[in-house]
User: What shape does this take?
Amino acid sequence: MNNIIWFRTDKLGDFLIHSHLIRDTSISISDSYTTVVCSPYNEKIIKEYDFIDETIPYHKDFSLYQKTKTLLRILRRNYHTCVAIDGKKFSYFCSLFAKSQNKIGLVYRVKSSFLGFFKYTRYRPFTFRFISKYLIFDHIKVMTGRGSLHEIEHLPSIYISLLEVIQKKTKNTDSYVFPLNKHSEEYIAKLLNKIKYKEFLLIHLDEKWVDIHNFNTECHKLIEEIQQSINMKIVITSFNNTLSYMKNIRKNFATYNYNNDNNLILENFNENIIHLEDIPIFEFERLIFNSMHVLSCHAGFVVQVCGANSSHVIDLLNSYDCMWYDCWVPYNTRYSRALKSDNKRKYSYTEIADQIKKIIV
Assistant: This one.
């Protein structure tokens, strides 16, 4: 048996970017057995992939005993290929001691200074590039950190080029992979049928919206202006969102919370905007799939899952963030961008709505 182990202990959106790489690598290596080391939260989703044979949960807040137990569990096998691309010290430490024919890693380059004068380049996670290049891995690629970036470095393409020493099947236009849950699909179909939403814009709200002008107190005005501008139904989504503007959202728009028994809100529903709160991840993906367009301030999962289900994603960004987010753009779906500010000022609600109208209408 050819064991393959992947380390991806960060966010689910980051995992999605190389989901097709994991699948293609598992297919390309005969008699493969694929293990993914991931966060306990992501493990619930990653377990559903039919090409992943085993998951090992890890979190930085684990006790020393838990970390040691996890380390020994990882090191008990011999591997054909070991891939660490999450930039986490635990992942690279495991890679150092793992017995593997091929050790592959991504190193992150950042600019630093000593006492504010002496400037130098360090490489995460172990400061010096030679540690990763000669002591840990057989093959590495380097990704520049956000604060040191001077040109676009497309991360999904870097992942693919890094794995070319093992397989050359994956292309950056190939769709990412997200497991389909039949029950979730049926649930969302019934919900949309009940509220009579066939064509709609999905707006996902998180912490990245708060820097929009007066959003904490007037967020409903922006959403209403967008709705009137595009003349389309809108579904607002949020998950475990405790920010202050959510009071305004719940006050101004009909809110259906998945965890509460408030189905009466859906009866004879006749509003242009609805807020669906705390929709579980598999249902959320199906909701995105059924939308005409998806608007977020580059919510990682939202953007990358559109690369799995071919949805049209619209990023709402500050102009100074554009180069960084260009490094994460999925090349496998329709991607558009609007700005909430430029280098001089924050844009008005009308200016934001007009940009979105030009994209959609």
Notes: Residues 45 and 281 are 8 Å apart (CA to CA). The chain has two domains: 2-165, 183-360. The mean pLDDT is 94.
